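Mods, move this if it's the wrong board.
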Amino acid sequence: MNTPFKQRRRNLLSRFAPAEIKSLLITHPADWYYLTGFTGESGAMVVSPRGTTLFTDGRFATQAREESAGVRVVLQKSSLFESVGEFFRYEATESVGFDPAQLSVAQHRTLRRVAGARVRWKAAGGLVAELRMRKEPHELAVMRRAAILAGAVLEGAASLLKPGVREFEIASEIEYQMRKRGASGPAFNSIVAFGERSALPHAPPTAKRLRKNELVVLDVGAILAHYCSDLTRTFYVGRAPVRIRECYEAVKEAQTAAIASVRSGAACGDVDSAARQVLSGYRLDKYFVHSTGHGLGLEVHEEPRLARGQKHRLEPGNVVTIEPGVYIEGIGGIRIEDDVAVHANRTEVLTRIPRDLIEI
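Not the wrong board. Structure tokens:
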């Protein structure tokens, strides 16, 4: 039977000749799920024209066989990488590709020692990541649902923003509501930041209590059927001062410009520039301290990156976040983030909730 996993492995094999490899070692869980459906926590996989072999331990033996149709499952006899090295010692493979970003020096040394001198190891990073960037229609369908789910959870959390509530109380409610609505969990540790702490782009929730006349940043993401969403909104408790309103409108305008520049064929660096140019016009660009966005899929941070100087061009099937922000120490931060899918002749904003400043 021709499953999506089997077709993906075929697509991967077509990349071997340009990369000058005969087989590929895969050690990243999201990659082996993408190619086989295996959801275990420990393993390694070898893909070659002769077939696909998945190495794992006894804890995941039954799971691997049930989830990975058409894949040979091998239980490791010693350490994982010693078992993989033994496999290559006896396989007629001279050139083995690996992703240097996913393999430690110690693991590589073990492979070289056990496999022997006959095996030639070749860095071949990004081969699976490049396939994962282009979402298939059924992947996009799941990601739409994940984005809508995150939006509903965020709107529910906003209704709880009352003076006296603590950051970690809101974070706990966010993650409870995600699971209640069908998510397997959060795509990342939810960001709940009140007042001056909202100027920390990745502020972890604390026991800080919400007070009147403070900014609130909520950044949430849900995992639904293995796929992630990522959504941020900013609120103000009370009547926002003119300066806060001006900053908010600047960020909203920057995000609108960046979303408008997202299209098939656009350079990722140009999308980033679209947001920065708007903020520069408001003299706020120095407070924008991260990239405009990133790819989204099985992981919350994937390729492509929407950052300064990035030459990669967007393609149909890409899903990216657009999340400009300004962060002013002693005052707070403002970020607006949505998930955007690239189609052949249009773009689609997957997240659905309003982007206006909400005063509570």
